[in-house]
Structure to design on (341 residues):
């Protein structure tokens, strides 16, 4: 199958492909999604095959209007409050499913379903034109960093999908916050740009966070949490700000080049500007999140590079998503001065 890259200005070929049950990757404000008609079971089954994704890991249903969710899920008052506050935007809401409306392939056989209304006008137009919500896992090969430009999608999935709607680089760069409203107490299952305190302010009560509690032998709240994620085929280490001087000395002493990913401010401080194997993360924490996955992919594609050192950001709620994805890519490993030097 030849995979096309379509400009966002003409959606006609993408609409036709989706209506015929084919796969089309679409842009969002977070990362690119791999779209299929959520009400076409055969189309949804192709998503798992194309990504190499385990079939017990459920998909997010992407809608163009909040009212579309009522076709297949039970929308509580709390859910409506969050939709009013944050949609369109990077918040995925898990609700009890309305029986017999969706394929088990969408829900992973659970009694709940995840929904999100992306802050991207092109994709909302696409959903409206297809006339059906779209499932949309991140459009990467399972286990790889999520795609933030159309070329990443093409790199992973060409030959397996009909095409990609290219709307440039995604703004946020890490996946949506996932909140579970299907139980008595709201819980964040995956951190994203929208933080726990922001959600608590809208709901007027406490919100749990389960992101830190998943051991390999545990049944995770979000099935996706048990799989390896965002991991390039390299050794990735997190570096705390105070350890960069030592980390750079160590890196320069290695035979194979070491990829360095760090904020502009540290690039300048350590006089690394313009050097090979340096991936600047931009001028603030938001730009770091937007550039994280692209940087990991950049070094992953360079065979000479065996090791990547990446800046750990300050542990604030706003940096929760960045640090969570980095921690997964690094398998929890830090550059440790005592151990490395
Ligand atoms: O930003 C995003 O959310 C992107 C863009 C494309 O919208 N999509 C995305 O989808 O990241 P995906 O499939 O890669 O991640 C969805 C996560 C998985 O960890 C999955 O296990 C969890 O949401 N999930 C989906 N349905 C669920 C459910 N009913 N209960 C618990 N977790 C669920
Ligand atoms: Mg994903």
């Amino acid at each position: 199958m030849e995979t096309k890259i379509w400009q966002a200005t003409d959606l006609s070929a993408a609409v036709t492909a989706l209506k015929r049950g084919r796969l089309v990757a679409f842009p969002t404000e977070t990362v690119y999604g791999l779209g299929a008609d959520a009400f076409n079971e055969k189309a949804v089954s192709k998503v798992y095959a194309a990504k190499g994704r385990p079939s017990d890991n459920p998909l997010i249903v992407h809608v163009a209007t909040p009212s579309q969710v009522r076709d297949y899920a039970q929308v509580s008052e709390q859910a409506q409050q969050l939709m009013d506050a944050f949609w369109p935007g990077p918040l995925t809401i898990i609700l009890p499913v309305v029986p017999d409306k969706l394929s088990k392939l969408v829900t992973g056989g659970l009694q709940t379903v995840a929904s999100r209304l992306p802050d991207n006008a092109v994709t909302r137009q696409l959903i409206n034109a297809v006339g059906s919500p779209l499932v949309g896992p991140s459009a990467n090969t399972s286990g790889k960093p999520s795609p933030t430009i159309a070329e990443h999608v093409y790199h992973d999935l060409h030959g397996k999908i009909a095409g990609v709607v290219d709307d440039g680089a995604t703004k946020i760069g890490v996946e949506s916050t996932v909140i579970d409203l299907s139980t008595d107490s709201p819980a964040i299952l995956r951190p994203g740009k929208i933080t726990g305190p922001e959600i608590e302010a809208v709901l007027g009560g406490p919100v749990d966070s389960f992101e830190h509690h998943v051991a390999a032998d545990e049944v995770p709240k979000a099935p996706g949490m048990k799989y390896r994620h965002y991991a390039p085929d390299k050794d990735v280490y997190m570096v705390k700000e105070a350890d960069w001087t030592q980390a750079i000395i160590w890196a320069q002493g290695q035979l194979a080049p070491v990829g360095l990913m760090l904020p502009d401010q540290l690039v300048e401080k350590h006089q690394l500007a313009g050097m090979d194997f340096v991936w600047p993360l931009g001028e603030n924490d938001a730009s770091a999140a937007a550039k994280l996955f692209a940087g990991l992919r950049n070094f992953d594609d360079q065979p000479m590079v065996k090791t990547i050192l990446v800046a750990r950001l300050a542990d604030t709620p706003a940096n929760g998503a960045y640090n969570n994805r980095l921690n997964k890519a690094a398998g929890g490993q830090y550059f440790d001065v005592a151990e490395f030097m």
About this structure: Confidence is low (pLDDT under 50) at residues 212-217.
